[in-house]
Amino acid sequence: MTELTCIVCPVGCRIRVDRAENGLKISGNDCPRGLTYAREEMTAPKRILTAVVEVAGGESMLPVKTKEAIAKAKIWLAMQETKAITVSGPVTVGQVIKDNVAGSGVPLVATGMIPGDA
Amino acid sequence: MLNTKAVDLVVVGGGPAGMAAAVAAAEAGVEEIVLLERQAKLGGILPQCIHNGFGLRYFKEELTGPEYAYRFMLELKKKPRIQVKTETMVVTITPDRQVVTTSAAEGLVCYQARAVILAMGCRERPRGAINIPGTRPAGIYTAGSLQYLLNIEGFLPGRTAVILGSGDIGLIMARRLTLEGIRVRAVLELMPYSNGLNRNVVQCLEDFNIPLYLSHTVTAIHGQGRVEKVSVAPVDADLQPLVEKGFDLACDTLVLSVGLIPENELSLQAGVELDPATGGPVVDSFYQTTVEGIFACGNVAHVHDVVDDVSAESAIAGRAAAAYLRGEIGGNRWLPVKAGRNIRSVVPQRIVVGQATPLYIRARFPEKNAQLNVGHGHSKRRIVSPGETIYYTVKPEDICSQEGFVRVGLEGGKVDD
Amino acid sequence: MSITEVDVLVIGGGVVGAALIRELSRYELDLVLVEKEVDVSFGTSKANSGIVHSGVHDRPGTLKAQLSVRGCQLFPELAAELDFLYKQNGAVVVARSREELVELEKLVENGRANGVKDLSLISREELRRIEPNLSAELVGGLLAPSGGIVVPFDLVFALTENAVANGAKLMVNTEVLGIKEEKDGFFVRTNHRPIRAKLIVNAAGLYGGEVAAMIGDHSIQLYARKGEEYLFDRKLEGLVQRTVFPLPSKVSKGILVIPTVDGNIMIGPTAHRVEDYDLSTSLAGWNEIFPAARKLVPTLQPTDLITAFSGLRAVGTSGDFIIAPSIISPRFINAAGIESPGLTAAPAIAEYIVELIKDSGLPLARKQKFNPRRTVVRLRDLDPQAQAELMQKDPAYGQIVCRCEMVSAGEIRDAVRRGATTLDGIKLRTRSGMGRCQGGFCTPKIIRLLSNELGLPPEQISKNGPGSELLFGRLRGDRAKEEKQHA
After folding, report:
1. pLDDT of residue B196
2. What is the pLDDT of residues B144-157, one digit of tens each?
3. What ipTM was assigned to the predicted interfaces of this complex?
4. What is the pTM of this model?
5. Going by DSSP bridges, is the β-strand pair A23-27/A14-20 parallel, antiparallel, or unpaired?
6. DSSP codes of every residue in C56-94
7. Helix, strand, or coil here: A63?
8. Mutate to test the interface with B, among C278, C379, C389, C403 (most CBs of B within 10 A)
9. Is the domain of C44 the same as that of C158?
10. C197 and C211 housed in the same domain
11. pLDDT of res. C403
12. CB contact, 8 Å: C444 with chain A?
């Protein structure tokens, strides 16, 4: 048995998920959106990772994110990879900083910019 | 004397509110706009809010803080009428709309504006304001300062932290610190419920197994040079700490996320009346304050849950300032809002008769299945929580100008244990 | 290791040591002031009520009475010379009952016996007229117009800066470890290089007993009395004009409501003997102070609090200041047990000690070129015209770093050049971080400015000395480098 707090809306239903022979038995959700949420959380939870990376010779950090949500289980690995990155400017918003972060198939992209000399 | 410049509109503050207001005013035809920002860059607090969750209401897509700010910076670039002055601090605003600024680049400059939009945002409550006993070592940071040091400056501010306050900023910092390898021993919340979004409780705390202690507070800070530990205790129903049930948590950093205060020192200089319930200026449907030609929007008016609302409200203020400069608003009849049961605050506080007005309502306590009454209009609210804005757009037919006020109240709700 | 040779060594960079070194810098002497902390004024002198007492409270015939009345008289001119934050706002002692009115009369007599001028008793109505925010319950008051307020650390900085400008040496981070009497003076061991001095003044505050014991003088017995104080937002400026005292108790002058020179309202202090030198504030302290202050000014609200602090006063067992040559050596002068009204008395204590030094036989010759003046730029206190001119001359004064207190990058740079090496050193010299946001916005900027000006990496910047560093290093740089080395 697992208990989840539904994050779909402010109600925050406590959803109970039991493993049944034919899959998952989900209860406690007030609405169908909770069902979908609980099923995804139980089978393939995903998160967007946001972080900062070092800028060579710069005083400010560059903010980045995974372009889409990646498997929750890969967050730590993705963070480790992000920590090792140092970028040099210029960088534009949306620019890919690293492809296929943590083998997720999703790129890490810049969410801020480093102005160029030009 | 001082270098004085006459302009149509001065916008004080280049965060989300000021940017949106300036853009909207320019789009509505205002000729000379000066946007004043004290930091080196525009965006206010957004550039340091590197997490996602912004923009769902305003842009209908999920953005991070820097991306959200960037959208408005692009808009500003398209509006050459807007003069942006960064690293420029406003030191005085007079009721007749003289705005005195200082900067390294230009020294002291006085703008005589025909209209002013106040968009200074808010600041964090410091340790002294909540009177935590103990020593005064290094390592006590407000969540926003810590976020700046971490996300903008790239410093490691500590190794083991305790966070006081479970609003969204506290929750988001708990995750952020954890991802950077800083151990978060606990998030403490004085109230019996978190003031943050469920989503943040789940994704920032539960995902990382960070304990959340509801109805707990810090009763003492220990350490001479640097924070060494904090004493923590549960609180009773009157929020008084039960010290005998307390315990200590060793940490080198205490993060305070204990509330935001609209920054209205300049507003007071300008003679603007403040609403004690919001800490911000009393405004009407056009976000005009009690001083003619001075408008206020964003977190200086009231602390918002989401930046999307700041943008929406600031666009109203920007357009209204444009209308004011054309002589179109002024002398409007308005009715004051009267807060009824379970209503802590309502913005705007003055509803202009005949004007559909989106309201931002905040409740005092959580309840379920209540009816929200606004004048003669009403709507059902399944969940009412002090941490979440209640939205309602009051329609002209909801209010009856004979009554002299608009009553707002929540009725018939069920209060949990 | 080379030895610093001086005529006079002053031990302790609090207000007494600072006032003395400045007074001595009028003479042709080699002087050094040593302070064990990272900065002057970082002990008792930074954490007290900041009051220049009129002298009504002290027992006639005591050194306390004599020197505080004299000190109070010296303040206006001293402030004009040294440009520190001082205001002669006057004091009012209030009575809460008819019985207390009788006590007030006794206090007037006491004050007159001490030579305090212009004392008057005022009626309830008069009290209400001059201080309308005082409680309506109060039945009368004693007005002491000569009383004032001072920013105590600002006074210490002003005194030491002026002394240094007149040739005195200042050594911070310098702790005296041992003193050996020699034929013509003393050999003093410190944590840095040793000092040889013909004469020593022990102004070591809480540590006065330990320092005296280094020459075998065990007569100085001191204990610490702790005082907590609570500070309110500057928006309350004007709530009271004068410093408001209740009638004194046996141990202290009671819980006061103090308008600070900077425009805040401060309440306190508690006065409790403590065994350890811990500077924490407590719930008990607040619960003692706040209700007492509210009896004087009922409109005070806890929501306007911005910070709290506590300080320790060195209290002697005799009940009076101990200012005299040591029983061991006439060339070792103790200035110990300088509790309240020590801040007020400090300039007079300095004069008094100079006389003791003359008596000791050390020749004192006045300097030809003593400069009594010191000035600093305080942007906030200038009129717009002067601000504009200043910014034109030096744009750094146009760059505001602390928004709450309007402190510019220029003033912070000046503060570093005046001797600040820490965040607190900057804060106490400029007020940056002392306002309503308590450094929330300006701390990162000040770390940068300090780091640049001192040429130190940001992680070495501390709040108030070693062990109070604010940062643990770069988030990435170092670790990324380490990882690369491993790879």
Report:
1. 86
2. 999 999 999 999 99
3. 0.91
4. 0.94
5. antiparallel
6. SSSPTTSHHHHHHHHHHHHHHHHHHHH---EE---EEEE
7. strand
8. C403
9. yes
10. yes
11. 87
12. no
